[in-house]
Automatic annotation (TrEMBL), chains A, B:
Pfam families: AFOR_C, AFOR_N. Its cofactor is [4Fe-4S] cluster; tungstopterin. SMART domains: AFOR_N. This is Aldehyde ferredoxin oxidoreductase N-terminal domain-containing protein. Residues 1-207 form the Aldehyde ferredoxin oxidoreductase N-terminal domain. GO terms for molecular function: 4 iron, 4 sulfur cluster binding; electron transfer activity; metal ion binding; oxidoreductase activity, acting on the aldehyde or oxo group of donors, iron-sulfur protein as acceptor. Belongs to the AOR/FOR family. InterPro entries: Ald_Fedxn_OxRdtase_dom2 (IPR013984), Ald_Fedxn_OxRdtase_dom3 (IPR013985), Ald_Fedxn_OxRdtase_N (IPR013983), Ald_Fedxn_OxRdtase_N_sf (IPR036503), OxRdtase_Ald_Fedxn_C (IPR001203), Tungsten_al_ferr_oxy-like_C (IPR036021), W-dependent_AOR (IPR051919). It comes from Syntrophotalea acetylenica. Keywords: 4Fe-4S, Iron, Iron-sulfur, Metal-binding, Oxidoreductase. Signal peptide: none annotated.
Amino acid sequence: MKKFLRINMADKSAVFSAPPQGMELFGGRALIAKILNDEVDPKCDALGKENKLIFCVGLLADTPAPCSGRLSVGGKSPLTGTIKEANAGGTFAQYLFSLGLKAFIIEDQPADDDWHIVVLGEDSVEFLPAEKYLGMNNYELVACLQQEFGAKISIASIGCAGERGYRNSTVQITDPDGKPARAAARGGLGAVMGSKKIKAFVIKEKGNYRGEMLDKTAFAVRNKTYSKALLGNHVVGGLRALGTAVLVNVTNGMGILTTKNFSKGTFEHAEAISGEHIAELQGDRNGVMVHACHPGCIIKCSQIYNDADGNYLTSGFEYETIGLVGANCEIKDIDAIARIDRMCDDLGIDTMDAGCTIGVAMEAGEIPWGDGEAAIQLVQEMIDGTERGRILGNGTETAGKHFGVKRIPTAKGQALAAYDPRGLKGTGVTYATSPMGGDHTCGNVIGMPGDPADKEGKVELSRNAQVAMALMDSLGMCIFASFAFENPENIQLLAEMVGAKYGGDWDIEKLMGLGVQCLSLEKNFNRLAGFTEKDDRLPAFFSEEALPESGNVFDVPNEELDAALPF
Amino acid sequence: MKKFLRINMADKSAVFSAPPQGMELFGGRALIAKILNDEVDPKCDALGKENKLIFCVGLLADTPAPCSGRLSVGGKSPLTGTIKEANAGGTFAQYLFSLGLKAFIIEDQPADDDWHIVVLGEDSVEFLPAEKYLGMNNYELVACLQQEFGAKISIASIGCAGERGYRNSTVQITDPDGKPARAAARGGLGAVMGSKKIKAFVIKEKGNYRGEMLDKTAFAVRNKTYSKALLGNHVVGGLRALGTAVLVNVTNGMGILTTKNFSKGTFEHAEAISGEHIAELQGDRNGVMVHACHPGCIIKCSQIYNDADGNYLTSGFEYETIGLVGANCEIKDIDAIARIDRMCDDLGIDTMDAGCTIGVAMEAGEIPWGDGEAAIQLVQEMIDGTERGRILGNGTETAGKHFGVKRIPTAKGQALAAYDPRGLKGTGVTYATSPMGGDHTCGNVIGMPGDPADKEGKVELSRNAQVAMALMDSLGMCIFASFAFENPENIQLLAEMVGAKYGGDWDIEKLMGLGVQCLSLEKNFNRLAGFTEKDDRLPAFFSEEALPESGNVFDVPNEELDAALPF
């Protein structure tokens, strides 16, 4: 992965180059943090021409490391105002590095109103007119592009949400089946892509670059052991059988399943939205419960969810969506939730923020609690672009403020995930202090030893998790591949795998240093954007209102939060 | 003015106290800056319980100094996120100090949904239920309160805008005729009042406090000379004859009359919206062209604007409203503009931000340019609280972003005034660098010597104006009373007037030090709220798009802007 590509949308120029000196050990999320720190004014308008949109792969993307084919997308977020990296499965990362590209960077924006499809080749960039695709959502768009360029292409695209600049817009990525079901979902990067008037990136076929490795044998030996350890982890078994939806019954049992706009921690209809129920349903409907979101994934927690007629409805139907669209809105109809998942992927909005958005709309009395059909109608309004739909498309914080809701479950403007921070305080610390805003993928500590509702030690737990997740996001590996970290010997193996590819002596400390460096760059960007430790807080209601089942409040002291990421 | 009053809306307590030590020489805007720095977290939610809403009078409020009866209202702004002081005429300031009160501070907010009318007396505070007044706009509300408490009362109130939390909400103040036509307009402080569930403050009658003065004779002698000099200033004559609308033909002639959402500097129908035309119309309609907005005003630039039938329509109908609702929206029908002024006062929204909001809505194609009736309908939507109306009620920045408009004429989220910064660069520097966000009253340099479109020296010009305006706002004096500053001897007189009241030797430097101190406190608050010098900028289009008539762009270098307020 020798090349960088810079695409300027003002003059439609494209320049391939060697990566700048000293960038060899920056990949994925850390590479995005480095480029944004070096090149983008943290105070810029996220939808203005000064922002840059970066697509890149991780440090181990071009290796057989398990689950290492994640695509990182980054820029300044129009949702949070912070630095932002969102990563996704799908095929695009592998296609990208096969062109010999480590990263491509979209700069500036057109002065006119002409939209483009940008076709990337090994040494070429084509800017094709996109007029005929405007107004299309992702499923139709992808079908048309596959019609035009062939079924083997890989696509990163936006729906109408990104076109319209909804601050909760995603970049959707085609999965191994060619469906736009994987998303660089969080933080509104689809709106940044739309601000640059790019409807889709297309890679027509894989290139010839196959990666470089200093010591293939050393890598292969360690990779085999690491992968075996990962597959032996007990959580991976549950994920493989039921997808991430395995968590519904787990969190409900813990009293942290986000219910009725984070007012309760248990949902009386949890069983109806559980992974177990989905597996049963999909057994009858010929769905697929073991499915890889990207080539190279060995965990396979994705699935194909068919509707009652046995036809494809959606894929990548995750616990977070089910918890936030389902329990959080008291919707018990799993097919309605799946329908909303599909509609969100199609429109190109983050299902998590959308679930919390529907939750605050319900709290405001816009639609009744638990009414799946009314929720579908709200998403339809986002698709149709009604006045209310455009507000909802801007995410939970904007919608909550618009409707005058006091209890808005966000951190730095981004909706929290489906784990109530009062009963899972380590993840609460992550929500509050992550440079990304409320984001469980930056350091979720569910399943870690100790009482999850005891505040003691949770800052350290979150810090370690945040460093490890920043590392995985920089390697381009799925965060679930870190389950092998339960045994420190496996971390050492991973360190030596990095060494086998890039050279040098690597130990756990040096490996984790990649995560620390990433977080440090991200915090620096946010600081220059105006964020201070006072922004590293959860909404007050988590401290003031106890979870009714347990009486737990979020009580990690502010001084401890301030010390969470001392980089 | 010995007393402070703290009103806690959580437990409905009220505590009178002596001002804290060392606060003697803080008044008006500076007192607000001091209290907010001492007591309010700059990162707090402006509509949350941590914010405080402060009403106070200036240092010379209880003296015969000309135009010294301005009321300052302050808090953290929900519109800009900055510190905010908005001052207004009307009778409330005089009523307030007659109770012996220098300031009252509203703290916390109710846990329940009960709204209150807060009645202030010399040693008493009553919390009366406000249910029967909810949903009323200011004109109806004030009439009902006058019915209940008598015609002599003074009122500070909010309309439905403040009730609903519109981020462009005002606090309206009754004028000497008992009409709610004066506004602490900018920055959404009406929403802060609404967040504390206060519909109106009422003072039933003046109290017995008459002020204290160390050396009455020394004050009176200097005051007489100062007042005479002020009345002799040539600008004051124009203001008295035509109101601030005298500026329409002036700015149009200079090519800086904000036209068609700041895309032009001249309006072909300027004459139809000019002060000269208004004076002619009002002559026929028995309107009043020389009218004091508060007792003690000797300039009398306010007026009473009657409709075509000779009935009262509005008062305090300012150049800024006419420029931003009129020229900026290409509306030439002065009666339609006056109608919008009345509707805005009634609903309780800032006419300036509303004018720019309608401008961006027109740019987005929501209604046609120049269509006064359609603009009235948009304001009616804000009154009715339709989905679109609620977006518009949140001001220009929110509406512009919602509609996807690129050219949004705001600084720090607040709409600019009716002087295009490309042709009046000193005021442009003020827009960019004022701690209040885009605000001409913080340092307008129109009429100052030199070429207004030449960038040289404009930072110093703005700095001096900003210091002087911060001084006037702290004294409680109308900024127009600074016209006497054209002769430095008058500034010395004003310094000695402060000395005659408070003691000590005062010279120009010490007097201006009050302004510097105020700005320094405000900048400190904003810094802790996350603002940096990168926020001290105008929207890029002012640098990139030339005014068509003159070819002028805003070209004051960023490094100079960074040095504008080195306090």
